[in-house]
Amino acid sequence: MRKDCCVIFDMDGVIFDSERACLYVWSEAASGFGVGNIREVFYKCIGTNNNQTRQIVEEAYSKDFGPGIADKILAESSRLFHERYDGGRLPVKKGVKEILEYLKSENIRCAVASSTRKAVVENELRDAGFLDYFEEIIGGDAVKISKPNPEIYLMACDIMKVNPMDAYAIEDSYNGIRAAHAAGMKPIMVPDMIPANDEMKSLSVRICADLIEVIDFLKAD
After folding, report:
1. pLDDT tens across 28-61, in order?
2. CA gyration radius for the chain?
3. 13, 22, 57, 221: least CB-packed within 10 angstroms?
4. Alpha carbon separation from 219 to 2, 86, 99, 214 (Å, rounded)
5. Residues near 35 by Cβ (< 8 Å), separated by ≥ 6?
6. Is 196 in contact with 189 (CB distance < 8 Å)?
7. Which DSSP string corresponds to 24-46?
């Protein structure tokens, strides 16, 4: 890989196994308000920021459970999540330390572009000991329109002063891959909870089973 490129990571589902953790607490929180299987709605929210997530949940359940149900579910799930996973307890995805060390050894610059709020991203990366690997952190609260809109990736490339064509985006979600592709980047998909479909295969430069496989691809590219 070229030394003047950079690698921009999504966080949830790529660095941390946080999407499964989120689904667990969402399910528990929702059941407390009488809402049943929330998995399908949860999948629609993967890769979106707080505002878009709230809209999706509200549209799905307000008719049956009244206005404001999204705020109730999301507030309780947030409380449960922080109670269980703060302080470095969030599970880490396979190969994170290895790929960060590899990129550091090659002097390849790294950033994070996550739909999660910047403060949360920084806290979770700091707790896990990963924050110093990243030159920039761009959170979902920095943009007006969430993924699949390319705004966050275009902003990340601008901040990193890199041409999108020279930037890799490592993503697990459909919306993330769509955003990176629309930004003109090189999307690498590492599927988490949802497998790659034909669209993802066409939009990605590579589908990898894990971050260890991403290292092999970057070495060869």
Report:
1. 999 999 999 899 999 999 988 888 999 999 999 9
2. 17
3. 221
4. 10, 34, 11, 9
5. 61, 65, 69, 73
6. yes
7. HHHHHHHHHTT----HHHHHHHT
The pTM of this model reads 0.93
Residue with tokens 């950033």: 111
Q: Cα–chain-centroid distance for residue 216?
A: 22
Q: Using one digit for the tens of pLDDT, what is the confidence trace for 59-69?
A: 999 999 999 99
Length of the chain, please?
221
Sign, CA dihedral 201-44-13-28, equals negative
* Model pLDDT, residue 139: 96
| Amino acid at residue number 127 | D
Q: What is the pLDDT of residue 113?
A: 98
